[in-house]
Amino acid sequence: MTLKSELTKLEITLQQSNIDNLIDKMLDNIGSIDPELRDTLIYNSFGKLIMEDYLTQKQINHILEVCLRNLFLDIGEKETDSVFTRSFSALVIVLILMKDRENRFLPDDIVIEAIQGSIQYLKLEVDVRGHVVGKGWAHSIAHGADLLTEAIKHPSFSIMLSSDCLEAIKQCLFKESTNQVPYVDDEEERLIFAVEALQEIGVTDNEIENWIVSISDELSALEKEGYSLNFFWKKSNVINFLRGFYFRLLYKNERLNIQEIITKILEHWYSRSYNHTQ
Q1: Residue 114 near residue 97, CB atoms below 8 Å
Q2: Each residue's pLDDT tens digit, 79-129
Q3: pTM of the predicted model, to two decimals?
Q4: Exposed site from 112, 187, 201, 240, fewest CB < 10 Å?
Q5: Alpha helices in the chain (DSSP H)
């Protein structure tokens, strides 16, 4: 029986098969280029097994250890299929951290490794493709943002890591793209959720304000190098991110001082765009 068949009839498979063998086959194929197997079947099956308590602590530890290794598999490559392994391993780690947040069972050292790994992954990932024709979602930045958000929400997260998290998020806005196109698959929104998670654990408005200004300053430095597709792509990422963050704050009717700073920065870049077209 193929893995697809086993996962399509998961309830029957769980009654008749060795779960350890099933887990290993799922982990071996977690980065399959078949989107139905990878996204619909393997990821959803991991969700069921983890969240509905089908697994022992030893089995969950094994899954987490493999996924943490996978997170950095061939990191630094662009336009290769290894991105699917990294990206979907990140999503499985999200499930495990979420489960551990409900009922602590993971060893402290592996939780800390997962938290630190979530930050490093966003910094190091260079394959920023969203949807890949014929292979489905790579979505590395969105999945990495989901992982960082869940890591921040975990009780073991230290607020001392907050500046490192903000730096990782900023770096995502300035990553290179082979196709020279801005994010178009909701990546900015997912990154905003990570910022909101930091605010919820006590990162100060002043730190967020300084960080926002530093994003604009970095874009200004890039502008001085001359107008290019690379500059306009990153400018689009920054503006879309700040605009999305502004409207999230506006919707919640909070942190007016941050809203004001974002407004000033957006006005600055809008005026630059207007003047450039004249």
Answers
A1: yes
A2: 999 999 999 999 999 999 999 999 999 999 999 999 999 999 999 999 999
A3: 0.95
A4: 201
A5: 3-8, 10-16, 19-28, 35, 44-51, 57-70, 82-102, 108-124, 140-153, 162-173, 187-200, 205-223, 229-252, 256-277
